[in-house]
């Protein structure tokens, strides 16, 4: 082989080697590109308009920030199906999500599985219903709460109701699931407002956050306490049920109703006076705030123990 031919063969071999190597180099670059964080939003009952609003707000936020994170949303069928929510969290752990934003159905029962998620390296943020601080402490677990001061919000609603009543009037409180801290806080805010105005709280019963159960409890209260002048409901679903119970008892216009959440279904009732007032805790914003806390923690390579404990979000009185 003469020198000219040899040089051509060498050049061709080099060119072939370069061409063969280029795709491998390109693949290596793409392989090193970090994946988008996968965020899971786990809510309570999606039969509750409040949580549908929360889900839609989160999806809208992700759609406008699609390059920043991926989103998985899920919820349970009814407010008391704690076991189903625990199973959803376990599924998210298996799916290796990067962050878990959770509105727990029970303030205590969800803590062990949330501990499991945090131990798996998942950033956990608590929204809507605060996890029990004592149970978290017993597990040596720090989970930031992103949400409103529920007691303060209920106190605003109760204070608005008080001047519409007379001192000494009988009132009743329909609470949500009794093992949830947000229901406990709202009931406490309502009671504080009524006590301050000199009203008599004659009943405190759980409607478990739901319309039908709220209706049944309201009917029982009205039958047992015919002089009740107001029903203070820990959420709007139960307020809707209470309105139906009042109508069925022939007491429309004689018993005031207040709620909490400002869902779409309550707005016509506010307008025509069937419901006097509610509180808006901005469901969509809560989800967005929770997602932001998690994404910032991931971007800053923060550990669960390093996250702030409380990020308070707004809650406002809503009337006609």
From TrEMBL:
Name where it's found: Cell envelope
At the top level, the lineage of the source is: Bacteria
Main subcellular location of this protein, as a coarse class: other
Q: Which residues are the signal sequence here?
A: 1-31
* Domain Periplasmic binding protein residues, every copy: 39-301
**Family stated for the protein in its record:** Belongs to the bacterial solute-binding protein 2 family.
Q: What is this protein called?
A: Periplasmic binding protein/LacI transcriptional regulator
């Amino acid at each position: 082989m003469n020198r000219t031919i040899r040089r051509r063969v060498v050049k061709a071999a080099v060119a072939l080697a370069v061409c063969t190597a280029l795709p491998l180099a390109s693949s290596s670059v793409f392989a090193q590109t970090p994946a988008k964080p996968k965020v899971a939003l786990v809510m309570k009952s999606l039969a509750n308009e409040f949580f549908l609003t929360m889900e839609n707000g989160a999806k809208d936020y992700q759609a406008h920030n699609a390059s920043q994170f991926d989103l998985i949303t899920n919820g349970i069928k009814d407010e008391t199906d704690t076991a189903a929510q625990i199973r959803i969290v376990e599924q998210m752990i298996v799916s290796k999500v990067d962050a878990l934003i959770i509105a727990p159905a029970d303030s205590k029962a969800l803590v062990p599985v949330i501990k499991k998620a945090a131990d798996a390296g998942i950033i956990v943020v608590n929204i809507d219903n605060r996890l029990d601080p004592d149970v978290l402490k017993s597990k040596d677990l720090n989970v930031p709460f992103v949400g409103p001061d529920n007691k303060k919000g209920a106190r605003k609603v109760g204070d608005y109701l008080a001047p519409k009543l007379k001192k000494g009037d009988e009132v009743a409180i329909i609470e949500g699931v009794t093992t949830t801290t947000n229901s406990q806080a709202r009931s406490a805010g309502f009671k504080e407002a009524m006590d301050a105005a000199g009203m008599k709280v004659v009943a405190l019963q759980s409607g478990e956050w739901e319309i039908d159960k709220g209706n049944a409890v309201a009917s029982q209260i009205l039958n047992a306490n015919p002089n009740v002048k107001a029903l203070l409901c820990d959420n709007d679903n139960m307020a809707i049920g209470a309105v139906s119970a009042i109508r069925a008892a022939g007491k429309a216009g004689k018993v005031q109703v207040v709620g909490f959440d400002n869902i779409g279904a309550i707005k016509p009732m506010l307008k025509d006076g069937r419901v006097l007032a509610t509180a808006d805790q901005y469901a969509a914003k809560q989800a967005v705030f929770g997602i932001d806390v998690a994404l910032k923690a991931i971007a800053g390579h923060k550990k669960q123990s390093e996250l702030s404990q409380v990020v308070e979000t707004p809650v406002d009185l809503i009337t006609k």
